[in-house]
Please model this.
Amino acid sequence: MHDTRAKHPDFQCLADLASEHSGYFTNADAAQCGFSRALLHYHERSGRFVRIRRGVYRQREAPASIVEDVLGIWLAVGRDVAVVSHDSALALHELSDVIPSAVHLTLPRSKRYLRTPQGADIHFTTRPFASRDITARQGIRLTSPTRTIVDSAEAGIGPEQIELAVRQALERGMTTPTRLREQANEYNGMVFELIDRSTRLAGS
Model:
């Protein structure tokens, strides 16, 4: 763990934190490594840091991520509480043909007071995330393929997209019929019926 008592800017500390998220970091990360707001803005003006959105930066030497919008919004909301989900997680998993119109995040209902940044679509849940529900891609925490598909079915994404996502996930070994049905069984009957039908159409 980095020393939060640092009084002098530590570029290596910041590089280490940013490397966990493809070169992106937040105001809080910078402060943890000894960068004041004034110093952070100085390095932004000098071009050493690239401001992505309010409170989120990228190190100049790090290539811009193809999922920069997702990374920026996820970090802005809070990587310790937010999980990329629904349409956005389908896209990151390369499942279905859904094109997200916003960055979808799921947070515990207890965090509903948090500000929703522009471009985000926030979902709140009372279902705690089990370890099997979370995975990571490109330094981003997102729902697992199984949870993503079932959450998307509950959210009303078209049945044809759910059927496609199920077929692709099964073909790629990203989930199993049993896991899909067990997850769907925790939701309402309509969700279970859609997932069950989709797995049977996929030959499972």
Summary: The chain has a mean pLDDT of 92. Strands lie at 24-26, 49-53, 56-59, 83-84, 103-108, 120-125, 134-137, 140-143. The chain has two domains: 11-59, 68-201.
